[in-house]
Amino acid sequence: MARRLLINILLGNGDAHLKNWTLIYADRQSPRLSPLYDVVFTTPYIENDSLALNMAGTKQWFDITMESFQLWSEKTGAPWVAIKPHLLDVLEMARTRWLELLQDLPMLNEHKAALILHWKQLNTDFQIL
Description:
mainly alpha; two-stranded antiparallel ribbon
């Protein structure tokens, strides 16, 4: 869940509301998150876009820090020592691969530029570039 939250922040997905968080009960007892779906860089389409869900007291992309995730982990009862490595893994992949991968995506160039700007405006904890 932490990985998905961070991915939505990094990709500026303001549409990640509750209906996009689905649980699957394959054995009818044990829940797991469904595969990730409906991830869209919504900022080009929604003026003053922000997170759909409150994250540690804010919905503003640029206010969220690693400390926000630590607070979230404490409130949910998930040990920070178990959460932090997942966040660092997502950041490592994003920082080493996303800019290159962005070049080949079927996005408008102005949307690509807007996504790069989004990455630059994130808190330094989560900046891609």
